[in-house]
Design brief:
100 residues; mainly alpha; 4 helices; EF-hand-dom_pair; signal; EF_Hand_1_Ca_BS
Length: 100
């Protein structure tokens, strides 16, 4: 069971990261450590790290399979990537727009 979960996690991250990287602002530095350190003891255990990775993978899976059908097709992935590109283009256009 753990092996299947880890395989799904690796697969979802491999497929989803390029498509969704623009949607999720990276958590860096102290904030990242605090996010991983679930019990606040100043240490990140393997269990805490894996739980955070699984939670993030589950959130990404929800974006890939919003209807909850339990699988993702190539077309689904292409749709997610297209949406991510549209959002990135909209952000760029907003950023490049002249200030009023």
């Amino acid at each position: 069971m753990k092996r299947a979960i880890l395989l799904m996690l690796a697969l979802s991250l491999t497929l989803a990261v390029p498509a969704l990287a623009q949607d999720d602002a990276p958590v860096k530095g102290d904030k990242a450590f605090k996010t991983l350190d679930a019990n606040g003891d100043g240490k990140v255990t393997k269990d805490e790290f894996m739980a955070a990775a699984q939670k993030r993978a589950a959130a990404r899976w929800e974006k890939l399979d919003p209807t909850g059908k339990g699988f993702v097709t190539k077309e689904d992935l292409e749709g997610v990537r297209a949406k991510a590109r549209e959002k990135a283009q909209a952000r760029k256009a907003k950023k490049d727009a002249p200030a009023q």
